[in-house]
Specification:
Helix content is about 35%, strand content about 15%. By secondary structure, the chain is α/β, with parallel strands linked by helices. The chain has a single domain, classed as TIM Barrel. The strands form 2 sheets. Strands 3-4-5-6-7-8-9-10 form an 8-stranded parallel beta barrel, surrounded by 4 helices. It has a two-stranded antiparallel sheet with strand order 1-2. Strand 3, helix 1 and strand 4 form a beta-alpha-beta unit. The two termini are about 30 Å apart.
């Protein structure tokens, strides 16, 4: 396993370059299997774990299933000091009787100061810890002033219950403005942004704000200098839930276009050439880019996890990366 340093200008710590997502742990993935996956990740040197306060709510759970499961695992293994925990808030249902939607009315709880404070402390209780290493705003909230949201995250850092803050599903200009607002308030800026990102990219959509765009990566590359603390990009659904390799899981509609299909073929070609799997190539493409991205990987079995762990130390030959980039 390899590692990298997260730093927001004030707080820093190392994490594994692969982050283990726990979305379906406690529902689709039963507790025994989940514990085995977590054990294997830790054994392989993995240290970065990702969850949320609303995962599993759409597959028969109550939302905090994975937080509670992680809490039980941490206690049973006694490994709290050996891992870095990231959780999220703001995208659980505001009104439990209404559905969520990606278009208005979304019914998200949002990122008001009251929600940020309450939900963060609830996550601590469910995880059974007194501090989380990373706390993300799950979905950008344009109805709440940025100054209020930024101030609320800063208050949690002053309290000592949050290490580094972050934001997810957000437009690049909002990331920049939120970080500038943090500096105006004298608090640490967002140190992470979590977006959907993959080797195969979607059709252009002017309204899409959850993609790890070249614009965002260019901004991240410009950080780490005086007056602009570092920013790390993490990527969810980097493997499109198995669509690169499974015939029963076709590409999602927005990815199913001529270049998308050509890129999937390129992954398979590259994998055969270098003796890896398409999944390993796709993850190594993210971690080894000019702006290294931290993929959030998911697995429903130890065997699946073992395949993905093979990407941790994989360096793509320069000629392979060039061919992949040219598609």
């Amino acid at each position: 396993m390899r590692y990298r340093t997260l730093f927001d200008g004030r707080t820093s710590f190392d994490v594994s370059t692969l982050c283990l997502g726990t979305m379906f742990m406690g529902t689709r993935t039963d507790e025994r299997t989940s514990f085995a996956i977590l054990d294997r990740f830790l054994e392989a040197g993995g240290t970065f774990l990702d969850t949320s306060n609303n995962y599993n709510a759409w597959v028969g759970g109550y939302g905090r299933d994975s937080e509670d499961l992680l809490g039980r695992w941490l206690v049973s293994r006694g490994v709290r000091d050996g891992v870095r925990l990231a959780t999220k808030l703001g995208a659980a249902k505001k009104d439990p009787s209404l559905p969520l939607s990606t278009t208005p009315p979304t019914n998200y709880q949002g990122l008001s100061a009251e929600v940020v404070d309450r939900e963060a402390h609830e996550s601590l209780r469910h995880l059974g810890v007194d501090r989380v290493d990373v706390l993300y705003g799950h979905v950008d909230d344009r109805d709440t002033p940025l100054a209020e949201t930024v101030g609320a995250f800063g208050a949690l850092q002053r309290e000592g219950v949050v290490g580094i803050t972050g934001i997810s599903n957000v437009a690049t200009w909002r990331v920049v403005e939120a970080r500038e607002e943090a500096l105006r308030q004298g608090v640490a800026p967002y140190g992470l942004v979590q977006q959907q990102a993959s080797y195969v990219y979607p059709r252009p959509d002017p309204g899409r704000t959850n993609w790890g765009s070249p614009d965002l990566l260019a901004y991240a590359a410009s950080t780490g200098v005086d007056g602009r603390p570092p920013l790390t990009v993490t990527a969810y659904t980097p493997l499109l839930q198995g669509a690169f390799v499974r015939d029963d899981k076709p590409l999602w509609a927005e990815f199913d276009h001529p270049t998308g299909r050509a890129r999937v073929r390129a992954l398979h070609d590259a994998a055969r050439e270098i003796g890896a799997t398409p999944h390993q190539v796709a993850l190594a493409w993210l971690t080894g880019g000019d702006v290294p991205v931290v993929p959030v990987i998911g697995a429903s079995s130890v065997a699946q996890l073992d395949e993905l762990l093979g990407a941790a130390d994989l360096d793509l030959p320069p000629e392979t990366r060039t061919r992949l980039d040219e598609v």
